[in-house]
Amino acid sequence: MKVTSEIAIILVLTLLCLSCGSSTKVQERILSFYTCKYDIDCVENAFCYWRAPEGGKCRCKENFVLVQNKTSFECLAVATGIDSPCIENIQCEMSLGNLAECNASSNKCQCIDVAHLGRDDKCHRTIALGGICETNDNCLLGDESYGFCYVGKCICNVKYHISSDGKRCIPSSFLQQSCESAESCAVTAFSDCYGGICKCIEGYIEAEDFESCLKAASAVGDNCTQTIQCSEYIKGSFCDNNKCTCKTGYHGYGNECTVDAKLGEACKEDKECILTANLENSVRCTLGVCTCVVGLSSQEPYGCVINSAVLKQYYPSLIMGLILALFLINPH
């Protein structure tokens, strides 16, 4: 029973040794509670440690660790680092931490599959960007550089952003700054690298503060938040109440704001006379004056209407056309 209790105590001490794998200096560890008088009474790599009143006890030498084999205990050398020769995992864990192991095939120390060798020569769990971390050494990136553990989460350092594959941190290039690839500009949505400079993609325009790309308007009435969205493609327009609008005295025609010219007023082009879409086919700029097209006459406030004389001329034909249409719709 005495031997059994002694072995149990030794096992407890061994477990305690496992928990101190991160210490930089391996302390001498008790080999057994059997008494000794001389070093020769102990196993290899152990010595007889004398302390009153207990007497002599065998301990592992410094930089050796207690390991139980099939029949007894032995003192094995603590690994000096990665790829050091080993027999048991504990040899590696003592110097590399509890995420180290002894490779059964090569008998060399390595980090377990989910870990890597950190900059402090310890094995650290590998955490992807966005994952929960304890230290900067957790945040190993795909290019072997490191991210930053901030408030328990792996992130990119300041002036860097995550790559499209989520494995690297890319130097951030903002609008009008130099760039090497589209990924450099990805920090700003709807931007790309053109000629080594970050710019907004087609259909988008730089905001007034150059911090974002805004969708450019293509017609009067489109949504907007800044005038630059309107004026980029619609000449003479501005943003008013979140809508692209022409200033007073102008109206939208195509992709520009053109001066208003009412019927009878001076004009230079047809578009000046077409104040609204329904006038597209009814008014023209003729001899420098906004005029109704042939067959129509001016009638305020309705714009151009069919000339009454023309209407009488074509009235019989219109009646016959209506009768024929009704017959075709309902032949019975």
UniProtKB/TrEMBL annotation:
The keyword Signal applies. InterPro entries: EB_dom. Keywords: Signal. Residues 1-23 form the signal peptide. Residues 162-209, 212-257 form the EB domain. It comes from the Eukaryota. The keyword Signal applies. This is EB domain-containing protein.
